[in-house]
Design goal:
Layout: H1 2-19, H2 22-27, H3 31-50, H4 58-80, H5 85-92, H6 94-115, H7 121-145, H8 160-176
Length: about 180
């Protein structure tokens, strides 16, 4: 319960900022403001760590919020640069990568060790890391091409109220005819 209580502030802050359109305002900001804010946020966190300040009270909360704001600003800046298009793609498919990375990464390491008898740690780390990102992306694009998008989405069920509303609307249309 202590863990829930410690993250509750950040959850409610994120929900509040989303309700007031914070990210939309951040996207419309000028890039120098984003750069200064990002640098300032990371500077505050860096100084806190460098000076070995371990305050979990209000100061720690403010430092965490400045780091989060700096990360949001850096994300918007990177999104605007075409060079970092791969970051946007990773963000778009982050759920799919998360859901399937273990299967593909472990599969490659099993193939390396059991079938190919490769036991080099560097080869295992590099091949596993690469396979854990590239293969889930390829699998996702393959599933999308086959029309299997539902594999990575939460099922949407109509609520009882929506069903009753649909029945009422279709009944009134039939009565008009």
């Amino acid at each position: 319960m202590n863990l829930v209580r410690s993250f509750l502030f950040f959850y409610t802050l994120g929900a509040f900022l989303n309700s007031v359109g914070f990210l939309n305002r951040l996207h419309s900001s000028y890039w120098p403001n984003l750069l200064i804010t990002s640098f300032g946020g990371y500077l505050v966190v860096t100084l806190m760590v460098a000076w070995n300040i371990k305050d979990e009270g209000w100061i720690g909360l403010l430092v965490a919020c400045s780091g989060i704001l700096g990360t949001c600003c850096l994300g918007v800046l990177l999104e605007r640069l075409i060079v970092f298009n791969w970051v946007r793609i990773m963000g778009l498919y982050s759920l799919e990568i998360y859901l399937t990375h273990t299967i593909f990464g472990s599969g490659i390491r099993i193939i390396l060790s059991k079938l190919l008898h490769v036991n080099n740690l560097t080869v295992h780390l590099m091949a596993g890391l690469t396979a854990s990102i590239i293969l889930p992306l390829a699998f996702t694009l393959f599933c999308n091409r086959l029309g299997l998008n539902f594999l990575f989405r939460i099922p949407r069920f109509k609520s009882i109220l929506e069903k009753k509303t649909d029945q009422f609307a279709s009944g009134s249309k039939q009565m008009e005819k």
